[in-house]
Amino acid sequence: MAQSNQQDALIAALRWQIAMGADEATLEAPVSRGIAPPAEEPRPAAPAVRPTPIRKTPPLGEAAVALAASAQTLEELRAAIAAFTGSPLRETATNLVFSDGVLGAETMVIGEAPGAEEDRLGKPFVGVSGQLLDRMFASIGLSRAENLYITNILPFRPPGNRTPTDTEIALFLPFVLKHIELAKPRRLVLAGGVAAKGLLLTRDGITRLRGRWHEVTILNDKVLKALPTLHPAYLLRSPISKREAWSDLLLLQREIKDG
Ligand code: URA
Description:
By secondary structure, this protein is an alpha/beta fold. The protein has a single domain, classed as Uracil-DNA Glycosylase, subunit E, CATH 3.40.470. The protein contains eleven helices and six strands. The chain has a six-stranded mixed beta sheet, with helices on both faces. α2 (60-70) runs antiparallel to α3 and α2 (60-70) runs parallel beside α7 (166-183). The longest helix is centred in the first third of the chain and has 18 residues, at 2-19. The model is unreliable at 16-21 (pLDDT under 50). Uracil (URA) binds next to α6.
């Protein structure tokens, strides 16, 4: 009803304009002469422009440092690593590989990263290189059943067993340092270049670093002796290098006796 009233008014206005001699349009759009145009449909409100959010999550390194610092026990540290979402390795791995051996052992071995077997079983050094590692330490009276504690720089297997990147090593280092602090070993054995590079903060290769004791400062500013040595996986590929590994083991044996 309201619409037909409005149409009648428009037709009357048009007739009046024709009667007044206005017989052609000179503007592109009609001009309303006293009759209000139909009210426009209300437009939906334009979405409010959102200000750039202030970053609430800390950068990954800080997140790892904060999570590691919050752990007061090894169980809490394991849970903190499991809760750390800052690395895609967590998504591709089957299990978190935390540690094996005797809690409170004086000698702590730090390897590189879990391989396929370790990923499957959730324990470090359980594949072929782990078997060699066990034989090497057994030759100087050490075993994970009695007096060795073992972990890795990375708690998750890199896809395809590739070498950990520098970024991955740095990302997980706060957890490794906390692990050492909580496990309280007297000395470290760094198995391979990745562990040596990560903990000795050097770019030198393992062949330059091995064969002598170094010092590692951990989070509570305690300094620990650390012996870099050749990784058992490398020894499997290069059996001739077992000579050097044996001489490293003798250094470790002497340190255990004298230290
Ligand atoms: N190599 C490592 O460095 N760590 C493991 O746990 C297995 C293989």
